[in-house]
Amino acid sequence: MKKIAIIAFLLVACVAAGRAQESRQDISISGTGLIEPFKASTTNVQVSSNRAFGALLSYRFMLTPTSALEANYQMTYANKIHYWANPNNYTVNTRTHEISAAYVRSFVYKNFNPFVEAGPGAFIFLPIRNSGTTSLDVKQQTQIGAIYGGGIAYEISPSFDIRAEYRGWITKVPTFGLDQLATKRWYNISNPVVGVAYHF
Known about the structure:
- The chain is mainly beta.
- 10% of the residues lie in helices and 62% in strands.
- Strands 1-4-5-7-8-9-10-11 form an eight-stranded antiparallel barrel.
- It is elongated and about 60 Å long.
């Protein structure tokens, strides 16, 4: 009876130690790009933009070894969004924020872990009032939309991996509170990401 109790105790201790060592969470920091497409509309407004660069902070909680929930915050450095509203031109120097959540599905192939993700997001278009903005009437605008993406993580150690991903934002083209900038169109913004994650 004593031997059975000792064996049972050792089994419980081994299972507990194994669970304690299992990584269920990770946090990642990434460099990002933001590539907004050209948009023309039935309202005679055309929109174009230069590229923006920024950083993405993500937290994942593993529900199973191959599925997770993810929370994201991203901020991009200033990019200029150009509006041509016949016969006027407007430029809005903009800093963009993303707050989103996603479901992540992973596939494990040795050290390579491809994954796909999708979920809802809020995008905050924040005008910067400097010489790059030609209209002082523009206002901060928050749009609700979605994110999606796919990428690959390469495990360099049990605690760290390197990630590369293509992400997309789906959201309405911002008007910054001005009716003359309305396109009544949706953006599909490209958001390439490269970063490193720490598992704990």
